[in-house]
Design a protein that fits this description.
binds magnesium ion, 312 residues, 12 helices, Rossmann fold, binds adenosine-5'-triphosphate, AAA_dom, 8 strands, alpha/beta
């Protein structure tokens, strides 16, 4: 059976041909090293995570918002790579680009600025459906609801709508049975778009850069999550906190890691994402690290994260 062509007009093969970055030798030099102590990079003993069970039937989806109002902490990178790793485990995944910058779309090799339909149209026009707007990605079983700068207008236009905070949730409802996971890549703000993502989600995944100032602002984020839980979405929970851009060689990274575990305890994932140039490379390549450098430490880390997410 031939796979339907993605509506941006290229097969995934052609997308790969556009890659500018040279494909890396797939070496494993940045493997996650848990040392001999049995302690993970979080400084805690590693928890046993069961092998993800095979799924015979799909849906209804668990919706996770990747959210942090601080910019550049790894939200988009984690959305792409967690999504790709979940798809490798046989899950059907929809990635929702909910940032007018469209970085999630670009990271999957799609230039969103000339698309006729994006998430903006689905949110604002009653006769535009998610089904006719999603694009296939180079990862089997992973679709993308793309976005571009048009979405910034939605934030203003939604203000006068009835049920403005629930617009995204209403929009996703018709496709919830088609997927096992829907991952929403939020923009770095706590505005109306992010509140929509939190109102639509079952869980929030908070990427946190291992850097001194990263803890600032998390209290405000958690406060926002609690308000959304009280007022709009009683089932909302924090699925986990993901430490990103960790450099095991620096005392600074290890100290920040210790502070994060001290402050948030069990909800910090055992999986920690190391800082590596491989991630910026994958953006240029327009594909996830799981296919760009499948045996790299980064790919292994996102697979380990996917296992934890499935188990939670
Ligand atoms: N583990 C990592 N190691 C090194 N660089 C990384 C890592 N994760 C992400 N990056 C790079 O850091 C930059 C920011 O990452 P990303 O776009 O995922 O963050 P973001 O939180 O989505 O940013 P924004 O708030 O602007 O949407 C990108 O250039 C990305 O390639
Ligand atoms: Mg982003």
């Amino acid at each position: 059976m031939s796979t339907p062509q993605p509506s941006w007009g290229r097969s995934s093969g052609e997308v790969a041909d556009l890659n500018l970055a040279p494909r890396p030798a797939d070496h494993t030099d940045e493997d996650i090293d848990f040392g001999e102590s049995g302690l993970g990079p979080t400084g805690r003993p590693l928890r046993q995570v069961p092998e993800p069970p095979l799924v015979a039937e799909h849906g209804p989806a668990r919706i996770l918002a990747l959210c942090n109002q601080k910019g550049g902490v790894g939200k988009t990178t984690s959305t792409i790579n967690l999504g790709a790793a979940l798809a490798e485990f046989g899950r059907r995944v929809l990635l929702v680009d909910f940032d007018p910058q469209g970085a999630l779309s670009v990271g999957l090799g799609i230039q969103p600025h000339h698309l006729d339909r994006t998430i903006y149209n689905v949110l604002m026009e009653r006769d535009t459906t998610v089904e006719e707007t999603v694009l296939r990605t180079c990862v089997p079983d992973m679709d993308l609801l793309p976005s571009n700068i048009d979405l910034s207008a939605a934030e203003v236009q939604l203000i006068s709508e009835v049920g403005r905070e629930q617009t995204l949730g209403r929009t996703l409802r018709p496709v919830i049975d088609n997927y096992d996971y829907i991952l929403i890549d939020c923009q770095p703000s706590l505005g109306l778009l992010t509140v929509n993502a939190l109102a639509a989600a079952h869980g929030v995944l908070i990427p946190l850069e291992c850097e001194f100032f990263s803890l600032r602002g998390v209290a405000l984020l958690i406060d926002t999550i609690e308000k959304v839980r009280e007022r709009l979405n009683p089932d909302l929970e924090i699925t986990g906190i993901l430490a990103t851009m960790y450099d095991p060689r620096t005392l600074h990274s290890r100290e920040v890691m210790a502070r994060v575990v001290e402050a948030f305890g069990e909800i910090v994932f055992d999986t920690v994402i190391n800082r590596t140039v491989r991630f910026p490379e994958t953006t240029v390549a327009g594909e996830p690290i799981t296919s760009w450098a499948p045996r790299s430490g980064g790919a292994k880390a996102y697979r380990a994260l996917a296992r934890e997410v499935i188990a939670r």
